[in-house]
Amino acid sequence: MFRNILEKGRRLAGLGSLVAALTVAAPAMAQDKEPIVFGGSIPLSGVFAFAGIHLHAGLTDYTDWINSQGGINGHPVEYVMEDTAYEVDRSVAAFKKISGSSSPATYYGDSTGFMKAIASELNSQGNTLMSGASFATVLTDNETYPYQFIPGPNYSQMFGIILEYIASQGEGGDMPNVAFVYSDTEFGKDPIENGKARAAELGIEVVEEIVTKPGSVDVSAEVLKLRRVRPDYVVFHGYVLSPINEFMVQMRQMGLDTQFMGTFWSSDKLIIDKMGADADGYMGVMPYNYYDSEESGPMLDALRAQAEKSDPEAGYRPTGYIQGWFNAMVWTEVIKRTLDAGKELNADNMAEALASIEDWDTGGIIGIPVTVRDMSFPVGRIWRVNADEGRYEPVSDWIHLD
Amino acid sequence: MDWLFFGEISLAGLAMGGLYALIALGFVIIYKATRVINFAIGEIMMFAAYLFLAFAGGMEMSPWIALPLAVIGGSILGGVIEKTIIRPMLGESPISVVMVTIGIASILVGLVEFVWTADPQLLPNFLPREPVFIGELYLAPKIAYGFLIGSALLIVYLLYFRFSRGGVALRATASDQAAAYSMGINVRRVFNMAWVFGSLAASLAGVLVAATGGLSPQFGIIGLSVLVVVIVGGLDSILGALVAGVFIGWLETVAGAYLGGEYRMPATFLVLAIILVIRPYGLFGTHEIERV
């Protein structure tokens, strides 16, 4: 009997060993599959470095996280990047180097300029799907940029979401009016014409347009112009911080009760950190939940856990971090769909997989299921600064444009 | 024509022009004494503004202590640059010296990115925030008080150059280096003094401009835009720097208000082109005649 038990025990131990060995070996076998490469021209230095370091952290942390989950369909993921200093020629050189040595399936572009410059090469290679820091409207032209997409709403769609919110604030047929303030750059001018057309459709009068140099400029003359038209809303675009602060402070000093709104790159916590109490009431359109919002979901929780794990001292993670993470999330979904369909991993098939995304649950990164339209995710929500709490709070539902 | 609006716009432009004049003064003092066009002047402004941020923001000093400390820090930086980098270049071609100042500018940008990161910054508020009215004309308080502080330094400088021993030595060296040297003036010391005074003016302007428009490692670009002021006024003319600074500030603002922000720079460069055609040495610059 004792021998019998010993024999059973040996068999069980053998079975247990086999199960244990398979459990250990499964990820190892997954790691034996060919790696999938995420490439990136990343602005770790230069004028966009304030965002670049966080984009990079988001992409790095996502890569670590997805590998900890067994990679993509068993393929490990490698993230290969070069610092570009936000210079187009260096971004192009980085792309050529990385695409020559690592054959990336997907690639992060650091600027609209780079993504436009590389389009013909990207199209002729046909191997790589690209997205990045840009939300430029022009990149959603599928004829010219078939292998590039926007990881959120493009700038015109952001204006569309803002204007829908403003229109919803009209009481008793008294539609608010609006002024557009934008920088004299390609970035700044991007959504203006479409924004004016959309405002006209919604019955919102655009009472003033102000163009400024980007960055550190005196805007007192421009504020004087706005005082004369007394807009209900001012929508900023093409800035990160300055001169938004000066417009807000000076217009409030003049006793105007104008409300101020901005688009993605001017809707981070930086505004609160630098402006303090003066930032109170500022509103931004944001396609993702903020890191410190009260929202949750499996992916948002995973993001927070991974961020905490990779750098416990970092605390709040800016929207650039979430943007980097979301880019990589979309790449993963697209690659997975392509592989699941048994198709070759090339730009055509990945673009097709991207276009097939409908009612996609992003696990809390975006608060509602999203559908891809014209290579973008036309969804967002209006958030308002609560300076006392030091964070943004939602003031609208999620708005998904058709 | 809305004359009230024109008056307010003009006032804002003139006040901003006062700050341009202060930066231009920094250019001119250095050029006048040493014949070096200092392309790092914008970055010296930026460095001083970051020093102010460190003292008033990071170390939580009173802004009125942080301001002179930052300005003195910027002027010491100018003096050190002259003594350690520019002085060994004496006698080298002007292009080499200009390239060295461009190199210094890049190093300063890298330094502030390293120390303060590339994040855009706002300086702690230290100027009164109550609106300023001159009659019925509104003027933004930061611009108004910035102009007053800048003007005070301008007046001190003008008195110093006119009446002090050091000022006379500086003017003498600017007029004729060899004659000044033969009269016992320590020309090397005057060179150093010019860099210190030029950097001091730029540093004060740097803090005042950054207090209005914010700060980032790209802030120094404003130094290059003020080059237009210096060329219009005359590279070696203090009076030219003052007049052209105020005029360009006014023109930029009026063009921006009536034509649109995208016409600010074209308007000033149009004036620059006209001045260069009519008076290549600037409105008040010295017309040097070379005899072969």
TrEMBL record, chain A:
Q: What is the lineage of its organism?
A: Bacteria, Pseudomonadati, Pseudomonadota, Gammaproteobacteria, Pseudomonadales
PANTHER family for the chain: BLR6548 PROTEIN
Q: Which residues form the Leucine-binding protein domain?
A: 35-367
Family according to the record: Belongs to the leucine-binding protein family.
Q: Tell me where the signal peptide lies.
A: 1-30
Task: Please give the organism.
Answer: Marinobacter adhaerens
For this UniProt record, the keywords arranged alphabetically read as follows: Signal
Superkingdom field: Bacteria
Q: Name one Pfam family in it.
A: Peripla_BP_6
Q: What name goes with this protein?
A: Amino acid ABC transporter substrate-binding protein
Automatic annotation (TrEMBL), chain B:
Superkingdom, taxonomy of origin:
Bacteria
Could you mention a single GO BP entry for this protein?
A: amino acid transport
| This protein's record includes keyword Membrane | yes
A GO molecular function held by the record: transmembrane transporter activity
**Which CDD domains does UniProt cross-reference here?**
TM_PBP1_LivH_like
Entry keyword set: Amino-acid transport, Cell membrane, Membrane, Transmembrane, Transmembrane helix, Transport
What is this protein identified as? Inner-membrane translocator
Q: Into which family does the record put it?
A: Belongs to the binding-protein-dependent transport system permease family. LivHM subfamily.
GO CC terms, sorted: plasma membrane
Matching InterPro entries: ABC_transp_permease, BCAA_transport_permease
Q: Name one Pfam family in it.
A: BPD_transp_2
Membrane topology label? Multi-pass membrane protein
Q: Which organism is it from?
A: Marinobacter manganoxydans MnI7-9
* Membrane-spanning ranges: 12-31, 36-55, 61-81, 93-118, 138-161, 193-215, 221-251, 263-282
